[in-house]
Amino acid sequence: MPTSTDSTFVQLLGEQVRHEFTASQQYIAIAIWFDDLDLPRLAERFYAQSVEERNHAMMMVRYMLDRDWDVEIPGVDDVRNTFDKPADPIAVALAQEKKVTEQCEALFRAARAEGDVLSEQFMLWFLKEQVEEVASMNSLLTITQRAGDDWFQIEEHLAREPQSDASDNSAPEAAGGAL
């Protein structure tokens, strides 16, 4: 069993906790930017996304605790707070989701290289989640670009779009419970 002192996977997972918390903060900044522009559906979407990223970090913390690995809660990286138009923060979010996908793939490869089948299985849920996250953000960016300067078309699209059910019984447990 890997320990926190000799495992690339454990080291990467600790770093991923920081990435997930940073993503959560970035989504709060995006939500506030939309909220300030009186675009409530876009704001709601990114407030919810922030909570989801926080939950991902806490799922990783719970897994580390369950495996009896050292856990250190890191600070977060700087986030962007200002944008010119709605496509800008959504493009930032899409790039962020693509980066997280690469990070999750690296975690999966590290677990496989170390023969840690439990961690491989753990990372499968996150890989599935990233496919959904990238696709969703890509679609939102496309809709936003098509709307051009008519920002309220984006709001109307979100009003018509069915809301996804956030509960997933196959999701890992979050330390302290999911929000």
Automatic annotation (TrEMBL):
Question: Where do the segments described as Disordered lie?
Answer: 159-179
Q: Answer yes or no on keyword Iron.
A: yes
Q: Where is the Ferritin-like diiron domain?
A: 3-148
What residue ranges are annotated as transmembrane?
none
Positions annotated to bind Fe cation: E20, E53, H56, E97, Q130
Has keyword Isomerase? Answer: no
Q: Which Pfam families match?
A: Ferritin
A GO BP annotation:
intracellular iron ion homeostasis
Q: Which GO terms describe its cellular component?
A: cytosol
Give the source's domain of life in one word.
Bacteria
**Molecular function in Gene Ontology:** ferric iron binding; ferrous iron binding; ferroxidase activity
Query: What InterPro entries does the annotation carry?
Result: Ferritin (IPR001519), Ferritin-like (IPR012347), Ferritin-like_diiron (IPR009040), Ferritin-like_SF (IPR009078), Ferritin_DPS_dom (IPR008331), Ferritin_prok (IPR041719)
Keywords attached to this Swiss-Prot or TrEMBL record, sorted alphabetically, are: Iron, Iron storage, Metal-binding, Oxidoreductase
PANTHER family noted in UniProt: BACTERIAL NON-HEME FERRITIN (PTHR11431:SF127), FERRITIN (PTHR11431)
Name by which UniProt lists this protein: Ferritin
- What organism is this sequence from? Knoellia sinensis KCTC 19936
